## 1
Amino acid sequence: MQTASTNIGERMGRSQELSDSKRGPVIGGHLGNKSIRDISWLLHIPRSTVSGIITKWKQLGTTATQPPSGRPHHMTGRGQRMLKRTVRRSRQLSAESIAKDLQTWCGLQMSPTTVRRELHGMGFHG
């Protein structure tokens, strides 16, 4: 029998996807009238994950990962880091000059309005 301390290496990280080989047995256990707690214990996955898989299967008829909703971000993580670094160096720069600097340094082409919107989302105001 495995205890929680010996099972730490098998736990999922927050961003890690559960494989199809584990999703199938979750649905099989559900169809076999097993409780969420029993399925969780047998497969060594969190109860919230088991519940989420069963809910998705009931609503969508599939357990496959769905594409993310919403429009993609204008800037990548690298671009956002570069924008933060630029603003921290000199807070007196205008959005127009920041947009030109990002174009020169990173090759990111964006309008001053987008720069303002991204800065606002990062907590820079003014």
Note: Residues 45 and 96 are 50 Å apart (CA to CA).
## 2
Amino acid sequence: MSGHTEVKAPLWKRVMWLVIIYAASVLALGVVASLFRMMMTAAGMRSH
């Protein structure tokens, strides 16, 4: 055995990464949805 011990990051750091990844994914989804909406509006599709 090599005696390698894995050190875990503190809980707040792991939670912060989770929050950052979640926020980035929601932001990316919003950008993609806005692009689709602009393309559909440019093609003449309207919701009302």
Note: Residues 41 and 47 are 9 Å apart (CA to CA).
